[in-house]
User: Which sequence fits this backbone?
């Protein structure tokens, strides 16, 4: 899409607001800030890096005055283009706002700026015996502000919940430049509407988050890690069901399918991380007080045994634990060797319907001649379905897009959701009506218009065009 | 406030929509449906009881067409007048929509209509080994729809979270009659804005909830109940802090002050439920797997001992457990014998600041010559501060209102909130600006207008007049 260049008076005013060195228009910056993990980007016209809510507000007011689109950006690790300026304009990078402001041990609270890296926060709170559970795979590079904007999940979400369960309060800048403060430092608060949780997961389309108050929990003192292998997905799903029926809520319950295991074996030059003939692998982790962990681990072993596991391993120490998790950690790298890109979908079904989801994927593989390694968070029913594609193979791309639509329709038919972690961004906007009916989309759009009547904040996201 | 009587054509149309027997205009009904637990009511002009979302939609459309206010009503147990039709119009009572539609053991989900009584749901899910944690004191009479509209809490909220943590999806009727479906049967869902959690706690001012999908958890197999007494609130608060530092998260952590204990003793004709000289009493409950419960209970005992507890009791069986909880259960009845009504406030502070909150209450008692027994959920910092008043004592009422304002200002100065459980309703609307700044209130009002441009749904609530 073409658009007019930025007026020089706007650039001057932006420089005056945040400092000249924090307004970039060089080609390298525009290129770097135009894409996210999706790799399909669009360069902005300028990159502005304000510090603090007042500077963010000043930048937003200038953009509004000049009617220039503006897009907030955290770590740029999203999979659906949430931070990509598809209509050009200004990327507001929050990279200078990256401090942990407070860790309050007495009240189990942390206060952070948006660009604190998730893994850095986890390390800081664990040092004092506390725990911040949300653990997206990108935790070494993604930032809390982006995690909040997307409502990031991760393996621990089944037991501990996703990001939304940990956000107590926000400071945020609205499209009109107003600075609002939602929620606060208390875990119970029913004063007015829950703007906090309206902003969580709103993908940077309603406000720019400038400060976050997070709830922490005590760090679980003990954990046990198990790996169980099965001949089929159905048996693994039965094991998951047995675990639930044994009333155990594991901290992680990861399921990996045969195609994914084969990709890892190929990536590791034939080194297998599971017995031959394995059709599905489960990684289970339970945590808590040592005595409870021992009992829950035993129940998990029994649940897997009863479902017909071919092998059950239990880590005896940290090194063995790392070895069991290795297959999961090698997955992303392994898939990259199959094809250059993947349609990385994060669909969700009620967990009892995981076998139906895998049956659907098997049909799509066969009918559309595609490679679709799949793995994910079985406890939540949140499965990463990776449709592997070669961009210059037009026929494969067409088949992949057809399969994608059928996948989404099938998931919704199973009472699931087309996205459990990555959000909609611009990549999935056209599929929104598969899951949401017209009155519900209309209600969301009315909220968008109430906050952003001119449609300048992160345009082109979530809602289908027209 | 006076208002025109309902047009007879509207009444006829309502009768046609829901059945003549479900449209009531007799004085007894109007009186009964005009008040909630606050006891300060205003009669509606009619009470309509639709069944199902389609009938609710039809009623809403009729009210909109005739520009008559309409107010949803669940159990009518609220403390802030949320279901009171302060501007007259039609009460939409959801009493006929009271079925548990589904308990899905495999996926840990329940689907209910709005008027299922909380305690009935708890009993039904516990029968199959599952657990619905939110436990407001009103659980025998309050209903899930009202719990969702107010985001009800209860003692277990410290460990298990409030109602919002359990709502996965909603069906609801908007003021324009649209029926929307938010969220669904999966615990992870990031598709569009989180309308579910915008509606939770919106006090029936944005939509009328007609169906609720709830998350369940496994029922904890074991629990331990402890009671510890202290000479002072400061010592009890230190015990709470010690429990947190011991990294235990109790399922209940209730604090009761001296004035409350004296009210109970007086109510029970001098029978004391705590040793003489007790200035503060803590009830602690831990739950989970038996081995973990034993260890956590021991840590709680140590935490109380280290804080200077005068006595620590631990229930050995259910009868003893009931006896320990008795003081808490007698509290509401006991307070009623002091004065006819109470300003029943549910303020919250970061839990480390509970001693400052009680110091503030002590100043208010002294400076304004008031009885203010206080007790509540210490783990959350959520304390029920009961300003006891005799309605026909004008001077006491004036002093009580002054103390009320200072209480709210003091709580906000401690980075707390003026309401953790009961909401704002019409009783606290004028105090909203103590906690929320103008831009934040303005953002909330924009959402209200986006959903309800004519202001017909539950008017006069949450926001201060003018």
Assistant:
């Amino acid at each position: 899409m073409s658009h007019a260049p930025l007026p020089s008076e706007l650039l001057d005013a932006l420089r005056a607001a945040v400092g000249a060195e924090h307004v970039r228009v060089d080609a390298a910056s525009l290129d770097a800030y135009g894409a996210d993990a999706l790799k399909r980007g669009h360069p902005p016209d300028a990159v502005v890096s304000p510090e603090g809510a007042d500077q963010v507000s000043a930048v937003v007011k200038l953009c509004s005055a000049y009617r220039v689109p503006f897009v907030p950006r955290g770590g740029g690790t999203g999979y659906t283009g949430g931070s990509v300026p598809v209509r050009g304009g200004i990327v507001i990078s929050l990279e200078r706002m990256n401090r942990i402001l407070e860790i309050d041990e007495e009240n189990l609270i942390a206060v952070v700026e948006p660009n604190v890296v998730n893994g850095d926060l986890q390390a800081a709170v664990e040092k004092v015996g506390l725990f911040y559970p949300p653990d997206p795979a990108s935790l070494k590079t993604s930032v809390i502000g982006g995690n909040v904007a997307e409502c990031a999940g991760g393996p621990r979400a089944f037991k501990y919940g996703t990001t939304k369960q940990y956000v107590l309060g926000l400071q945020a800048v609205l499209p009109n430049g107003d600075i609002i403060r939602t929620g606060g430092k208390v875990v119970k608060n029913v004063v007015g509407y829950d703007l906090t949780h309206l902003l969580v997961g709103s993908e940077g389309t309603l406000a720019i988050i400038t400060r976050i108050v997070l709830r922490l929990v005590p760090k679980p003192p003990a954990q046990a890690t198990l790996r169980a292998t099965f001949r089929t997905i159905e048996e693994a799903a039965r094991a998951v069901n047995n675990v639930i029926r044994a009333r155990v809520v594991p901290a992680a319950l990861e399921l990996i399918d045969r195609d994914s295991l084969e990709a890892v074996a190929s990536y590791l030059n034939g080194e297998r991380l599971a017995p031959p003939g394995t059709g599905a692998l489960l990684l289970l982790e339970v945590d808590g007080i040592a005595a409870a962990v021992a009992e829950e681990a035993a129940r998990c072993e029994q649940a897997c045994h009863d479902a017909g596991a071919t092998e059950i391993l239990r880590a005896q120490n940290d090194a063995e634990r790392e070895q069991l998790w290795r297959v999961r950690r090698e997955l992303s790298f392994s898939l990259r060797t199959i094809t250059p890109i993947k349609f990385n979908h994060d669909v969700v079904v009620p967990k009892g319907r995981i076998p139906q989801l895998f049956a659907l994927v098997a049909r799509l593989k066969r009918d559309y001649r595609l490679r679709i390694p799949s793995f994910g968070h079985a406890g939540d029913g949140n499965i990463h379905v990776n449709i592997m594609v070669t961009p210059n193979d037009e026929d494969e791309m067409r088949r992949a897009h057809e399969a994608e639509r059928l996948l989404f329709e099938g998931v919704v038919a199973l009472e699931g959701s087309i996205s459990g972690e990555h959000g909609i961004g611009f990549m999935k906007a056209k599929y929104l009506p598969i899951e949401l009916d017209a009155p519900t989309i209309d209600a969301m759009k009315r909220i968008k218009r109430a906050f952003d009547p001119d449609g300048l904040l992160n345009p082109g996201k979530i809602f289908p065009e027209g």
In short: Chain B touches chain A through 93 residues (CB under 8 Å). The mean pLDDT of chain B is 95. The first strand of chain B starts at residue 23 and ends at 24.
